[in-house]
Structure formats: structure tokens, C-alpha cells
Write the C-alpha cells for this entry.
Amino acid sequence: MKPRLKYSEINITNVCNYSCTHCQSLNNYAFKGHQLWCDYKDEYQKLSEQLDIDQIQIIGGEPTLNPDFEKWVEGISNLWPDSKLQISTNGSRLDKLTSDIYQILSRHKGTLWITCHDIKLYAGFLNFIKHFLSDIAIDNNEPPAPKISRLFVDINGVEVILDWTQSFVSSVVDLLNDRLTLMYNSDVNTAHDNCGFKSCHQINKGKLYKCPLVIILPYFLNQFDVVMTDEDKKLASEYRPMSYNDNISKFVNSIDNHIPQCKFCPSKYDKHEFIGTDKKILIHKIT
């Protein structure tokens, strides 16, 4: 029997067209990097032969910005046909959520998760959901309920979650005296105990990681100058994800434990209201 994860996210891009302050994926900066399906499909094929996953969520950045978005959805669907499939989006590219995407979700009784950051877009999302789902009635004149998530399910078992999000927890990197700065040096046990992402295991380029941070931070440090010690830069680069030819059972059994890189996260997860904009913060990049 193959090792099994209850949940994993598949990160297909660092790129987002929004720039929300305190973004956990650091997309308020001009962060680059798409993963193309043809470059990594073999690694995902081999991983799927070694690992079962109950629930898979395709994420970014904004995943619909990836030029191979539909290939990713189709490819992951075929490799893990028994998994519940989810797609997470900010809803800015509704044209990418086609009938073909619906058919893939219907095979999995899957979920489209739309996170609304702007109440002015809410009615438009309701109208989209009415046409995206099969045989479901939505009253567009119904007053919006932005303080709660709303679940819509159609006759084929396809779900749409319309989520209203106006706050993020503290980001690991922030501007301090006009310099990008690593903000935390936390006790790893305390940070892990209070972490809202410790079970958000991610797969990137066919390799399994404990959490989003250990994927995002090394990529970010390759693109941006961040004030931090040489020791912390070394630690950020030292995390080793699991590939298909590693001891998968051992890795999966320990994936919920804390790691040294937990020190980069806050020990207390305060929420901050964010300002959403499409203007990226201009920061001097490493050249």
C-alpha cells in the first residue's frame, strides 16, 4: 500500500496579478516563475506512482495566469484520479474557467474555490457561478453576505466556494526602512504550534515540501535582496524536499513535525487587514 497524504497543494506559479499587502505568497512584490507542465510531468507521474493524496488543491500565485493552467488541471486529474480536486483562484481570470475545467472537476466531484478580495466583484462572481455550475439557481438580487464563505453544489457534485477574505496573517518578509527584511527569529516549537499552514503540505516541480514557506522563500531570495544574516540565508537553502525516489513513508510520517525553518515564521499569527491593488511594490532585484 502506498503512503497517503490527507491533503496537498500543488503550486504551479509564483505569479499573481494582485498585490495584497501581507500576502503569504509574497505576491505584493513582482515575483516571477511559472512551472510548465511539460517540464515536470514525468516527475509528477513518478510521484503519483509512489504517493496517494486524498485531496489536492492547485494553487499559485494565481494559477490561471500559468500559460499551462488547463494542462496542469488535466494532468493532475489523470495522475490522481481518485483524489478530490480543488482549484484556488482570485477570480480575476474567469475566462480560464471553461467548460473543460468544469468537466474535469465533475469527474472528481471537485471544488472551485474563489477568494473575493473586493466586494464590488461579488455580484459578478455570483453570476459566473450560476453559469459555471449545472442546474443551480442563484438569486443575483440577494444581498451579499461578505463575512462568510458560501458553498454552492450542483447536480453533478461540483462545488464552488465563494470566500470573502479581507485579512492575512503576518508575512515572513516585509518592508522595514525601505528595505526588504526577514521579520522573524522565532522559537521553532512555538511558531509551529501556532502555524495555520503546518498542514498545507505542497508539491512543487514534482517534489513534496512540508509547507509553502520552504518553497517560496528560496525562490524569493534568488530574485530579491532581503536583509537577513548569512546563517539564515544558508538555513533557507538547506531544506530538502522529498522526491519520488526517496523514502516516502519515512518523509510522510514526519511531515507534520516542526523543522528548523519554522523560525522564519511568526510565533503569534496576528491578522492584518490588507489593501488590495494591482500595483506591485518596486524593489531592487538581484542582478
The chain has a mean pLDDT of 90. The first helix runs from residue 37 to 48. The radius of gyration is 19 Å.
